[in-house]
Amino acid sequence: MFERVREDIQSVFHRDPAARNAFEVLTCYPGLHAVWLHRLAHGLWGFGWKWLARLVSNFSRWLTGIEIHPGAKIGRRFFIDHGMGIVIGETAEIGNDVTLYQGVTLGGTSWNKGKRHPTLDDGVVVGAGAKVLGPFIVGAGAKIGSNAVVTKEVPPGATVVGIPGRIIVKSDDEQEAKRQAIAEKFGFDAYGVSQDMPDPVARAIGQLLDHLHSVDDRLEGMCSALKALGSDYCAKELPALRDEDFAEVKDAAGDKPAA
Ligand SMILES: CC(C)(COP(=O)(O)OP(=O)(O)OC[C@H]1O[C@@H](n2cnc3c(N)ncnc32)[C@H](O)[C@@H]1OP(=O)(O)O)[C@@H](O)C(=O)NCCC(=O)NCCS
């Protein structure tokens, strides 16, 4: 038990630069008090002492301003910063190393019994005031922006902002890898053409590369289908693009071709 308490305190130091010492964390962090009281309430709930569990949970709400239903399943090193106004529903599930800020709701959108609240996988961060509503999964490491309203599944690693929540960062480097692959295929240097480039021209080129990738995939598929039908139409190699081919264009633009 003390081990768990110690790691709870450590998780505050990792995630709140304002934390000064263990005594202060132990006594002045309502998020921690709410988590500890929830562990007690959840245990009582599991034993079938449901009224007592609700009573403990209600006491915790009165003390901390954080309402966690005793049925909610919460992993290790869960950190609630500030806390006031948080509501976590009965069937919510929270993985390890999850962080919530004040005003977050992990709620349901229906009155049906059964799973109706979200599941937050490991390492998810939910910003102040965000509402995550419904029985879907928020993938590991995803970030929900402050005041976002999220009602659909969020892929691992994605960042979601706004109402309704929209993804602003792809979950992994898959998109980037695809762009790089297609850029290399066409002899184009895609250096710096990434999703988070603020340059609109670079973004447009990125979109073109994505489109080229889709077209390329489709052509590959058609070629395989033709081959399966006995055609050798796709046996011919595509002509390679060479730098010299662009020399005239570069000259016309007053630019010297690369040596
Ligand atoms: C969503 C969040 C995690 C994104 O952080 P990030 O990955 O560093 O992203 P950026 O700050 O570079 O922002 C990326 C884009 O999203 C926008 N954005 C960021 N947070 C947003 C939010 N909550 N709502 C709407 N748009 C948001 C930015 O304006 C930016 O838009 P642009 O590309 O058009 O300029 C962060 O902004 C956030 O909301 N964190 C919660 C923090 C919190 O609640 N703190 C409370 C402390 S008391």
3D structure, described in words:
- The chain has helices at residues 2-15, 22-28, 30-47, 50-64, 174-185, 200-228, 247-252, and strands at residues 66-68, 73-74, 79-81, 86-88, 93-94, 99-101, 105-107, 119-120, 125-126, 131-133, 137-138, 143-144, 149-150, 159-161, 166-169.
- The protein has 259 residues and is of the alpha/beta class.
- The chain is built from seven helices and 15 strands.
- α5 (174-185) crosses α6.
- It folds into two domains: 2-170, UDP N-Acetylglucosamine Acyltransferase, domain 1 (3 Solenoid), CATH 2.160.10.10; 173-254, no CATH class.
- Coenzyme A binds next to β14.
- Coenzyme A (COA) binds at residues 82, 101, 127-128, 143, 145-147, 159, 161-162, 168.
Report the uncertain regions: none
Please give the number of β-strands.
15
Number of helices: 7
Order of helices and strands: HHHHEEEEEEEEEEEEEEEHHH
What CATH first level of the largest domain would be assigned?
Answer: Mainly Beta
Q: Major sheet, described briefly? A: 6 strands, mixed
Radius of gyration, taken over Cα atoms and rounded to an integer in Å: 26 Å
Q: Strands across the major sheet, in which order?
A: 3-6-9-12-14-15
- Beta-strand proportion: 15-25%
Bound molecules: coenzyme A
CATH superfamily of the largest domain: Hexapeptide repeat proteins
- What is the residue-averaged pLDDT? 86
| Tally of discrete structural domains | 2
User: Within the CATH hierarchy, at the fold level, what is the topology of the largest domain?
Assistant: UDP N-Acetylglucosamine Acyltransferase, domain 1
Helix content: 25-40%
> Which structural category do the helix and sheet elements fall into?
alpha/beta
CATH architecture of the largest domain: 3 Solenoid
Morphology: elongated
Ends distance: 69 Å
Catalytic activity: L-serine + acetyl-CoA = O-acetyl-L-serine + CoA
Subcellular location: Cytoplasm
EC number: 2.3.1.30
Keywords: Acyltransferase, Amino-acid biosynthesis, Cytoplasm, Repeat, Transferase
